[in-house]
Design goal:
This protein has about 230 residues and is α+β, with helices and mostly antiparallel strands. Helices cover about 30% and strands about 25% of the residues. It has 5 helices and 9 strands. Strands 8-7-6-5-1-4-3-2-9 form a 9-stranded mixed sheet, with helices on one face. Strand 6 and strand 7 form a beta hairpin. The longest helix has 20 residues. The chain is globular, with a radius of gyration of 18 Å.
């Protein structure tokens, strides 16, 4: 990229979702203090009712539960924690009957250890029987963010969750995604000659966790990063 003098943006488009941006602002303002645990989950049953189903179930194309879709949760985890991942441990499985005919294990749980000691977790399922769910839970020493809710010691007298009315990442439909914000960001990077926070080099780190998850689950051992 440096030799070619080009700007790159990888389409982890949820970074432009209003809830993601709201959470980033709250973290920047130390609303929940220092993170020590972060959880981002992707639950989206992908069956014949989706046009991508025929290729999504194939190992050679879909790859794994994370590579086919759950990578957006992995990227969200990295985006919120803002630390280098140093180790991954994971399990994956099929449901007993594998009714959708996946060639790879469509369900996985990944535990990520970050350089500062923060623990992260990503659960991903593309054969679940439930409405689409993109769960976010961030625990800090001064409070907790749960999706669009916050509880914080910074607000004296708070007795329950405060809910922020904003647009959630609550649909797997492409039309729901904030592509306009992503494209505007790429144009800004080109015009101002700056690197994107989600360029190819950054996206490699997200995919590295996805690949380490597959390796850990297959071999039954923790995997150190970088690979």
């Amino acid at each position: 990229m440096e030799r070619a003098k080009v700007k790159t943006v990888v389409s982890f488009v949820l970074r432009w979702n209003p809830l993601f941006q709201t959470i980033k602002a709250m973290l920047a303002d130390c609303m929940i203090g220092e993170l020590f645990y972060a959880e981002v989950d992707y639950m989206h049953g992908i069956g014949p009712w989706y046009k991508q189903y025929e290729w999504n179930i194939k190992k050679s194309i879909g790859g794994s539960s994370l590579l086919t879709a759950g990578c957006h949760a992995v990227d969200g985890l990295r985006w919120f924690v803002q630390q280098e991942a140093v180790e991954v441990s994971a399990y994956s499985n099929f449901s007993k009957k594998n009714p959708l005919g996946y060639e790879y294990e469509p369900n996985s749980v990944t535990i990520v250890k970050f350089a500062d000691g923060t623990i992260g977790k990503v659960a991903s399922s593309v054969e679940c029987v439930m409405p689409y769910s993109f769960n976010i839970e961030l625990l800090g020493d001064q409070g907790t963010i749960r999706n669009n809710q916050i509880y914080t010691r910074k607000w004296p007298g708070q007795t329950g969750w405060a809910t922020i009315p904003t647009i959630l990442p609550d649909s797997g439909d492409v039309t729901h995604h904030p592509f306009v914000g992503e494209v505007n960001h790429l144009v800004e990077c080109i015009l101002t000659d700056k690197e994107s926070h989600v360029n190819v080099a950054d996206a490699v780190k997200t995919h590295e966790i996805c690949l380490a998850t597959e390796l850990s689950a297959a071999e039954g051992r923790p995997v150190k990063l970088p690979l």
